[in-house]
């Protein structure tokens, strides 16, 4: 179910003319989506659960611009002069840090939320361009391990499918405290998607609506987390980097505590970050925008003297190479993508518009990942739907998209005179709005004013 | 059988111990002076025997997969967390989250266990000689928890398919956890579990608890 308006709002010239000629005015407070939400709640008595991330407008990377080089800075020549994109993740404690060819990584999305074909496609696409992919709340599948050169294994509160054999097969371990879409919330997977295979991997009865824990079962707080990280290092003989993923909220403090607990890499996911299934009220009203989180995280790392020693991965609303470059200029070492990767595989493709409409949605609007009826075969466990996604073709599309993101980010970095994406800096940026200037801590364009600085 | 290899943590490190246990050159080990260190014998993945002489800190025998590990003393938080197979025995008491998320094997705590014993258990068998604290078997998915003493408040909150047997009193039952009938097959499995743990209580003295399965689907009737 979704809160989309039930009546058509676009492609509907006649009715909007009609409303206009009558002087009908839509309430900003009770707009059509809000009215539909109230009607839906009254009809069903159950809150709205959906996928995707926050849909409300938020200060975002679009509110930032790069200055580019001219007289006072020296640009680099496209194609000819080097602009490197490789990164190292987790070299503080681990014997085998990750070396990736591009700073754009694939975020954790569970098998269960996604079809086995989608997981395989993500692995194929990521491996083709030399980046990492990540398991999710539901364990590691042979499909994704087999196709992923660099696979990050998530360690979540539910511990579904967690086992030491897969842990040892992983290239890094990501301890998940939260997600940007729902900081403070546990996982959800509705019965339609709890197939026999998914149920078996999670030790759950098939077909139930799964709600998983929001807190880890065997540690509370940073002091315990430090011991937990020690245990995971011991079990894996100090080989693998340990990431800690947090949903953006009190980011400055959370990053300090994650580092104090021993994280090699901190992943900060802003409120635009996608989800497979969460209450709409949670997605839209809990957490802070990605833009607001990055400077807080960077400040925490800098104060600890560990910026770039403990790497920062940022996610939540990364769509373009410009977003990648902006996140990195603000101090991220890498980014992760979820929603955009699914779109690259074929999610919300116009060729399925008719089928999206049959489900009460439309291409470009589809967010009912929880329902498991995805015509694109991505967010489903239905074997027939899932078979629509060819993992090889999907992987190729994802690889193409990842290459474009990398090339776009390089284009910007060269224009700013940087020989490596990681050389981008806040000084290269200005903001278009006061809000973005205050959050990103860069000056409003044309001024030297950073509100609050 | 050969004499166990002795590792004394007064002179050796937990790191050296675990490295040895992960690529064992012997069948049996004795760990001395554990001094409450964390992650002792974590990640054992073969059928070796480990006897720890003294108290251990957090996550002792964590993710055990096949080992027969005995702590001759008390254990800190998360003993045998996420065990896959094998046996872990604690001769004294265990702190919080004993056997958390464990998928298999047998965990025996001869003394009592603190809060959250068997939290999110996924197939392990846990037998506690004494009492267990509050919030035990929270979201327990599968496996069996046997308590020879009393259970604290909110036992089995949001429980899935795990089965709980308690000989003494239960402080209170958590959301969706109910008392269930003891049928002959339950008495049989309980007798077997007690025997495996080396305890000789009469199974008829226990009561059985499990899920009412009312929270398995999101409905407007759910009050939680
Ligand atoms: C379908 C789907 C499933 C997800 N599953 C998980 C998960 O299992 N664990 C997790 O930490 N995050 C999960 N996430 C969140 C992503 O890891 C990531 O934080 C988010 O998608 C990044 O934001 P973006 O979607 O705007 O790129 C999921 C996201 C989506 C879209």
Proportion of beta-strand residues of chain A: 5-15%
Name the structural class of chain A.
alpha/beta
* Count of beta strands of chain A: 16
How are strands sequenced across the largest beta sheet of chain B?
1-2-3-4-5-6-7-8-9-11-10
CATH class of the largest domain in chain A: Alpha Beta
Order of helices and strands of chain B: EHEEEEEEEEEHE
Which geometry of chain A do the CA atoms define?
A: globular
Major sheet of chain B = 11 strands, mixed
> What is the tally of helical segments of chain B?
2
Shape of chain B: elongated
Largest protein interface, residues of each chain? A-B, 35 and 44 residues
CATH superfamily annotation of the largest domain in chain A: Aldolase class I
Fraction of residues in helix of chain A: 25-40%
> How many domain units of chain A?
2
Short account of what is shown:
Chain A has 453 residues and is α/β, with parallel strands linked by helices.
Description:
Chain B: It comes from Pseudonocardia oroxyli. Chain B: One of its GO terms (molecular function) is oxidoreductase activity. Chain B: This is N-methylglutamate synthase subunit B. Chain B: InterPro entries: Glu_synth_asu_C_sf, Glu_synth_lsu_3. Chain A: Keywords: Oxidoreductase. The complex is a heterodimer of chains A (453) and B (224). By secondary structure, chain A is an alpha/beta fold. Chain A has two domains: 1-46, no CATH class; 61-440, Alpha-Beta Barrel (TIM Barrel), CATH 3.20.20.70. Chain A contains 16 helices and 16 strands. Chain A has helices spanning 13-22, 32-44, 116-129, 142-147, 164-169, 196-202, 221-235, 251-260, 280-285, 290-303, 321-329, 339-345, 353-358, 383-386, 391-415, 434-440, and strands at residues 49-50, 64-66, 87-89, 98-100, 104-106, 132-134, 150-155, 172-176, 188-189, 210-211, 242-247, 265-269, 278-279, 311-315, 334-337, 429-431. In chain A, the strands form five sheets. Chain A has an eight-stranded parallel beta sheet with strand order 5-15-14-12-11-8-7-6. In chain A, strands 1-13 form a two-stranded antiparallel ribbon. In chain A, α3 (116-129) crosses α15, α8 crosses α10 (290-303) and α11 crosses α15. The longest helix of chain A is centred in the C-terminal third of the chain and has 25 residues, at 391-415. The two termini of chain A are 43 Å apart. The model of chain A is unreliable at 1-11 (pLDDT under 50). Chain B has a domain at 1-111. Helices cover 10% and strands 26% of the residues of chain B. Chain B has helices at 14-22, 184-197; strands at 5-8, 28-32, 49-53, 65-72, 85-90, 106-109, 122-128, 142-147, 163-166, 177-180, 207-211. The longest helix of chain B is centred in the C-terminal third of the chain and has 14 residues, at 184-197. Chain B is elongated, with a radius of gyration of 18 Å. The model of chain B has no long low-confidence stretch (mean pLDDT 96). Flavin mononucleotide is lined by residues 51, 53, 107-110, 113-114, 136-137, 154, 176, 179-180, 245, 269, 272-276, 315-318, 336-340, 369, 379 of chain A.
């Amino acid at each position: 179910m979704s809160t989309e308006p039930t009546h058509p709002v676009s492609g509907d010239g006649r009715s909007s003319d009609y409303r206009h000629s009558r002087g009908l005015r839509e309430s900003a407070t009770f707009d059509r989506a809000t009215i539909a939400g109230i009607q839906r709640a009254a009809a069903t008595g159950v809150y709205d659960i959906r996928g995707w991330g926050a849909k409300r407008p938020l200060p975002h990377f679009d509110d930032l611009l790069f200055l580019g080089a001219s007289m006072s800075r020296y640009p680099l020549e496209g194609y000819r002069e080097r602009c490197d994109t490789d990164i190292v993740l987790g070299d503080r404690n681990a014997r085998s840090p990750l070396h990736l060819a591009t700073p754009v990584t694939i975020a954790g999305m569970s098998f269960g939320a996604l079809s086995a074909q989608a997981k395989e496609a993500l692995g194929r696409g990521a491996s083709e361009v030399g980046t990492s992919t990540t398991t999710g709340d539901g364990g590691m599948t042979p499909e994704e391990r087999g196709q992923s050169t660099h696979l990050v294994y998530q360690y979540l509160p539910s511990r579904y499918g967690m086992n030491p054999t897969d842990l040892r097969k992983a290239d890094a371990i990501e301890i998940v405290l939260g997600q940007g879409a729902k900081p403070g919330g546990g996982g959800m997977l509705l019965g339609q998607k709890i197939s026999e295979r998914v149920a078996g991997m999670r030790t759950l009865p098939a077909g139930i609506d799964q709600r998983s824990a929001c807190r880890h079962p065997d540690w509370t707080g940073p002091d315990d987390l430090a011991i937990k990280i020690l245990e995971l290092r011991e079990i894996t003989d100090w080989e693998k980097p340990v990431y800690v993923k947090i949903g953006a909220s009190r980011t400055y403090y959370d990053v300090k505590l994650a580092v104090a607990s021993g994280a090699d890499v901190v992943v900060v996911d802003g409120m635009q970050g996608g989800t497979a299934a969460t209450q709409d009220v949670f997605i839209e009203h809990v957490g802070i925008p990605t833009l607001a989180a990055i400077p807080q995280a960077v400040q925490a790392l800098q104060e600890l003297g560990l910026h770039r020693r403990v790497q920062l991965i940022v996610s939540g609303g990364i769509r373009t190479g410009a977003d990648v470059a902006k996140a990195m200029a603000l101090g991220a070492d890498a980014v992760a993508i979820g929603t955009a990767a699914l779109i690259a595989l074929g999610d919300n493709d116009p060729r399925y518009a008719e089928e999206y409409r049959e489900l009460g949605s439309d291409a470009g609007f589809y967010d009912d990942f929880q329902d498991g009826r995805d015509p694109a075969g991505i967010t489903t466990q239905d074997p027939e739907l899932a078979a629509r996604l060819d993992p090889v073709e999907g992987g190729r599309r994802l690889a193409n998209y990842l290459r474009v993101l990398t090339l776009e980010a390089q284009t910007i970095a060269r224009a700013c005179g940087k020989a490596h994406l990681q050389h981008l800096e806040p000084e290269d940026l200005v903001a278009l709005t006061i809000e973005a200037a205050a959050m990103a801590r860069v000056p409003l364009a044309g001024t030297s004013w950073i509100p609050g600085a | 059988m050969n004499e166990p290899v002795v590792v004394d943590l007064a002179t050796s490190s937990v790191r050296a111990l675990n490295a040895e246990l992960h690529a064992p050159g012997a069948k049996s080990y004795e760990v001395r002076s554990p001094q409450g260190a964390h992650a002792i014998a974590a990640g054992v993945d073969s059928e070796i025997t480990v006897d720890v002489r003294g108290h251990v800190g957090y996550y002792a025998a964590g993710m055990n997969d096949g080992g027969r590990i005995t702590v001759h003393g008390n254990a800190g938080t998360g003993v045998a967390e996420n065990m896959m197979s094998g046996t872990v025995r604690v001769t004294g008491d265990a702190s919080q989250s004993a056997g958390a998320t464990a998928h298999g094997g047998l965990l025996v705590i001869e003394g009592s266990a603190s809060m959250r014993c068997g939290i999110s258990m996924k197939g392990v068998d846990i037998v506690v000689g004494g009492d267990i604290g509050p919030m035990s078997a929270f979201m327990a998915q599968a496996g069996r928890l046997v308590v020879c003493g009393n259970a604290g408040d909110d036992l089995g909150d949001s429980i899935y398919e795990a089965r709980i047997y308690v000989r003494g009193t239960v402080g209170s039952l958590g959301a969706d956890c109910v008392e269930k009938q003891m049928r002959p097959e339950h008495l049989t499995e309980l007798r077997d579990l007690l025997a495996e743990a080396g305890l000789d209580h009469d199974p008829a003295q226990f009561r059985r608890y499990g899920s009412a399965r009312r929270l398995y689907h999101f409905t407007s009737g759910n009050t939680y």
